[in-house]
Amino acid sequence: MSFSRLNASAATLTKNRTEGAIVSLSGMCATCLDGCIGMCEIGKSAYRGAEVIYPQPFGIITAASEKRYPVDLSHFTILGTVVGAWGVPPDPDVAIFPAVSLERRIGRDKGIKLKLPIIIPGLGSTAIAKNNWESLAIGAAIAGIPLTIGENVCGMDEEAEFRNGRVVRSPEMIRRVKLYKEWQQEGYGAIIVQANVEDTRLGVHEYVISELGVEAVELKWGQGAKDIGGEVKIKDLAKAQLLKHRGYIVLPDPEDPQVIEAFQRGSFHEFERHSRVGMVDEESFLRRVEELRRAGAKYVFLKTGAYRPADLARALKFSSLAGIDLLTVDAAGGGTGMSPWRMMNEWGIPPVELHSLLYRYADQLAQRGEYVPDIAIAGGFAFEDQIFKGLALGAPYFKLIGMARAPLAAAMVGKTIGRRIEEGDLPVYVARFGETVEEIFVTAPELKRRFGADFKRIPPGAIGLYTYLQRLAQGLRQLMCGSRKFALDYISRDDIAALTEEAARISGIPHVMEVDQTVAEQILNGVAASQPLAERGLSRRSKGGKG
């Protein structure tokens, strides 16, 4: 069984000539023809070389792995019940799905409050993040969820000012922080600023804490899309040279006269800017966390990627020792920017496996009485059923679901609809709902009531993101109601069952044919037939008891 398409993808704008006859081992056409123009990845690499490593066209797409992992969240099912209610009285007039609370508090002091158990992880210096930031910031703020400003924003800001190698002013960072804060509602959510190696050298965290009033900062070890630092494409020679002067790795060398001549001649059209990989050790990590707290950070987060299990253990243990407020673990396969396409498909530990290991390690620390930080997991989440399963897989330790590509997609669709309304060129698929923002976006009446005259200042992209998040909220409430869980803290691992033996083995979640075996026998034998499962001591609940 093949899990990957190896030699052709829409992500690299390549395809096989013999699409119906592909060699499974290599991905090549069954017959490679002398005279073919080279539409496949091998062929395109013959004339464009390293350009074909990356998804294309850069700046207007997001990309994620096409690999079909052996196990994913569809290999689990959500279990419902007809007895009891957790978090509200077991009364049919009270236990209705709108009564489900999706609010959550995170951090060591539980001082960050959220309307939904969702966080948008780092969206940094890529063009697609920059060009959609207004929609993302306003949409996330009015929905009451945290948003993370990703790596390299100050370093990539051409108008940024530096003194002695440290940033003292960055208009782009100011814009991103202020947009979110301006629309933040009743203290819900948070704006978080991430830093990698270059950001740390440039003093980005110290700058945003002291000058922009940012309270939450995030150290970055990596992400699930790739095993190396952040990358972007640069179309401007002067900017490529500027970034090299600021300490970035820029390929090819924008100061080499032959490279400059080739660029100006049109032999290539984009430079690559790369970030360095970090070197992690316990002492320096603990020291950096303490430096940030002394600098005024109220909350310190850590984000790590789909590295080997030993590194996952390091992330969790170091976070425990440092008292990190939130640990985000991003599994293989995702991505929002320019990650090497083959790396995105073939590197890293996939979501179910990585998050199952994370649960196991967190539980081990907890059993010894050690501090376990609040945990967010990421890796291809898009809909409410996946959110429920993800939280259940690691209950009670998993608190949030990280989502980037899906919220960005919603924001881009909303933005596009807004533009098409202005152009008077709505496609039939959308025009059947109306011709104005108020008619097309189903949440527009609610937002008009909430914001009054300021509603007109909310861009359609932000309305698109908000509307998508409200769909997730209602869907999640319905699923939780069916499991009789009326608050997030009541979601537990026995709210899901594995559908395959392999999923059960990897996750430790019982196979559906093994769930409730003992209690089912007791019911059949007439023992407490109407009593909720947990009241008989046969269920591992995350917290609390029957409402």
Descriptive notes:
The protein has a domain at 10-53. The longest helix has 23 residues, at 460-482. Mean pLDDT is 93; it is low at 536-547. Helix 15 crosses helix 19 (460-482). It is α/β, with parallel strands linked by helices and 547 residues long. The strands form five sheets. The chain has an eight-stranded parallel β-barrel with strand order 4-5-8-9-13-14-15-16, surrounded by seven helices. The protein has helices spanning 41-48, 127-131, 133-143, 153-156, 171-183, 197-202, 204-212, 237-245, 257-265, 282-295, 309-322, 341-346, 351-367, 384-393, 405-423, 428-431, 437-440, 444-451, 460-482, 501-507, 517-524; strands at 76-78, 104-106, 112-114, 118-123, 147-149, 161-163, 166-169, 191-195, 216-220, 231-234, 249-251, 271-274, 299-304, 326-330, 374-378, 398-402, 496-498. The protein is globular, with a radius of gyration of 25 Å. The protein contains 21 helices and 17 strands. The two termini are 48 Å apart. Strand 6 (161-163) and strand 7 (166-169) form a beta hairpin.
